[in-house]
Amino acid sequence: MTAPDHPLSPPPPAGSPSATDRDGPATSQCVISFGSNLGDRHELLTAAAREIARSPHVLQPGGLQTSRLFETPPIGGPGGQEPFLNAIGAFETTASAKEVLSMLQELELALGRERRHRWGARSIDLDIVLHGQLIGVATGLVVPHPRYTARQFVLKPACDVAGHFRDPRFGWSLSELASHLSAGVPSLALVSGSQQLRRLLCTRLSREHGILTYVAAQDSRQVTTAATFPGRPSPVTSTVPPGFASGLPAAEEVADTAHCRPVTDGQIPPPSGPWVSDFLPSLPTGLHPPDLPAPQQARVPRLIARIQGGPDHSGWPATHQMWPGGWRWPEYRLEIDDLDWAVSELASALDSMRCTAEPITDDGHWW
Questions:
Q1: Which of 96, 164, 296, 315 is spaced 20 to 30 A from 136 at the CA atom?
Q2: Burial label, 79 (beta-carbon count in 10 A; 0-12, 13-18, 19+)
Q3: What is the reported pTM?
Q4: Helix, coil or strand: residue 36
Q5: How far apart are CA 87 and CA 151, in angstroms?
Q6: In the annotation, is 113 catalytic?
Q7: Which of 68, 125, 147, 351 is catalytic?
Q8: Do 234 and 226 form a contact (C-beta atoms < 8 A)?
């Protein structure tokens, strides 16, 4: 189910009508995620899929296309949670992202969703992943989903029904992104915000979670960051809430730990496991996932983690601001309205990159 001429769809065959040849409002390809780990998970997801399929927002004849059901372990949040069932749905729509979100939230409430904790257990969780070429933010809505790029439990199911769809920010398909996450160890390079804040995040990850971190050596003049290297992602003015950074200790007051290693030349040494850096390491050139030997893949960050001030402070910067020199690399949005949560979110993001996602149905006809 694809829309000819749509930027997330394959090229239309010769002679096929384009979107501009058809009457009526413009259509968009919408990708949504399903999740549940409370109650009768299969029954809840079935009820959600059937209601969505009946919605006037889902255009026919293509209707709602769904992936297989996948079972994944709970990540982050309170302990003692049951495994999740996850799936992805794709459909064509003339509805806005906000209209689709309202439909999903009303359905969550009808199925008993209670919003208590981030990463907490939930009877039903429905999110917009992509909505056409939209890159934007509104109250309660950021599109593309700000953290889906780190989630294998989203990307693996997406490959069933939407693997060819491309993220409008950096141009990679969902299948390319899924392969890229699996090609190297889970890793994030922090950009934007102050170096002081990035250093503190790395130090806390090292101390509290035992995560290997790399920090730009204080006396090095060779380490190149996103702020100074042409063609790399622009850091954009930090949107950390006013007064937040003033409470951070000076960089020299943040002691290194056994897991926090200084880097002087911008090159990540061969890592022994998941890692986070407070600078942007050297990246290979090209617009698509690099085809590198395994040792080199391990030294390239899977994602660039862009620090933002929180859901009410800013959306994604415009594409020309993110990529001033034409460079395109997948990003992850890290909201810093709460430092403790940001540290745990980074740790959870690394876990999400390597979590198992096993199909439990043979196809998408589970509802």
A1: 164
A2: exposed
A3: 0.82
A4: strand
A5: 12
A6: yes
A7: 125
A8: yes
The torsion angle over the Cα atoms of residues 258, 259, 262 and 266, rounded to 10 degrees, is 160
C-alpha 145/C-alpha 243 separation (Å) is: 27
Report the distance separating Cα 23 and Cα 136, nearest Å.
26
Q: How far is the C-alpha of 280 from the C-alpha of 189, rounded, in Å?
A: 5
Tell me which residue has tokens 């060819």. Answer: 164
Element of type H or E holding 131: strand 125-131
Q: Provide the pLDDT confidence category of residue 286 given band limits of 50, 70 and 90.
A: low
What percent helix, strand, coil does the chain show, rounded to 5?
25, 20, 55
Q: How far apart are CA 103 and CA 152, in angstroms?
A: 25
Strands in 207-295 per DSSP E: 212-216, 260-263, 275-277
- Nearest CA to 208 out of 352, 334, 349, 346 is that of 346
Query: Which pLDDT tens digit goes with each residue over 62-86?
Result: 999 999 999 999 987 676 789 999 9
Among 284, 265, 298, residue whose Cα is nearest residue 327: 284
Instruction: Give all domains of the chain, ordered by start, each with its CATH number.
Output: 19-182 (3.30.70.560), 184-336 (no CATH)
Closest Cα to residue 31, out of 71, 74, 1, 55? 1
The residue-averaged pLDDT of 235-258 equals 49
User: Which candidate, 170, 284, 280, places its Cα nearest to that of 223?
Assistant: 280
Catalytic residue among 127, 160, 167, 278: 127
Active site residue 291: no
Residue 122 bears catalytic tag: yes
Amino acid at 359: P
3-class secondary structure, 126:
strand
Residue type, 95: A
8 Å CB contact between 6 and 27: yes
Catalytic entry in 122, 199, 302, 306: 122
What phi and psi values does residue 346 have, to the nearest 5 degrees?
-65, -45
